[in-house]
Design a protein that fits this description.
258 residues; alpha/beta; Rossmann fold; six-stranded mixed sheet; three-stranded antiparallel sheet
């Protein structure tokens, strides 16, 4: 079950200028996959910050520790070295993980039910958000009756309704076809402009990172290290063909190649 994750161990009182996320020289190792082998170092000396209200996208090759980074921020695993501080976070995993027997409305309201709200109050709040998200008329549909893009909107509504100041998004559109993915990226940019949150997004899609992010952090192959941080100053809404984004895309790919 995909439920919003709070990390009390790492949660800090957020002052206006306190970063929503602060990682300093973080190292994460995993046990060896076979006897006699060395431990697997997933992240090695990673430092990054997410300012309040900022969207930071993290890109890098497969296996470089992007998902592990989100797990550290959400308190699902501990660092072996370095420090991790983060605001209370809600995690949206790669799969929408909607409950197949529940309606779109009840799936969206799940975070509210977990928090103790009544079914009626949760449905009322979730219904208003689903209407804003373009799901009006499908509130009582089961996940199998929804398109991929609609399922992701329901999952994102559930993540927002958790009420956490920090959203951790793990490849949220990876399972969608190319056209739907572009549509969902534009939709997500609009949703975040209406309801700003601090966001840490990990993705394999460089263009997605540039369309959505205020900054893009590039990780090396495993063990993941920060090899570049690029600011994205292009005005919103952004298009993939914007000259500034095209130039930044080439810079990101150059960093990934080297």
């Amino acid at each position: 079950m995909q439920t919003p994750v709070t990390a009390p161990r790492q949660a800090v009182a957020m002052e206006p200028r306190t970063p929503a996320v602060s990682l300093q020289d973080v190292v994460k190792r995993f046990a060896p996959v076979r006897r006699g082998a060395d431990a697997v170092v997933a992240l090695d000396g990673v430092s990054l910050e997410v300012a309040p209200g900022e969207i930071v996208a993290v890109v890098g090759p497969s296996g470089c520790g992007k998902t592990t980074l989100l797990e550290l921020v959400c308190g699902l695993t501990d660092a072996d070295a370095g420090s991790v501080q983060a605001a209370p976070a809600a995690l949206m995993a790669q799969s929408d993980l909607l409950l197949p027997w529940a309606s779109a409305l009840d799936n969206a309201a799940l975070a509210l039910r977990v928090a103790g709200e009544s079914r009626e109050a949760g449905r009322e709040r979730a219904g208003a958000l689903l209407q804003d998200f373009g799901i009006a008329g499908f509130e009582h549909a089961r996940p199998r009756e929804l398109s991929g893009g609609m399922r992701q909107r329901v999952a994102f509504a559930r993540t927002l309704l958790a009420g956490r100041p920090l959203l951790c998004l793990d490849e949220p559109f990876a399972s969608l076809d190319a056209l739907t993915r572009q549509e969902m990226q534009s939709w997500l940019a609009g949703a975040l402009s209406r309801d700003p949150r601090s966001v840490l997004l990990v993705t394999h899609d460089v263009e997605e990172a540039l369309v959505l992010g205020d900054r893009v952090v590039v990780l090396s192959p495993r063990p993941g290290r920060v090899v570049a941080t690029l600011g994205v100053d292009a005005p919103r809404p952004r298009r993939r063909t914007d000259p500034e984004l095209v130039a930044l895309r080439e810079r990101v790919f150059e960093e990934l190649r080297t």
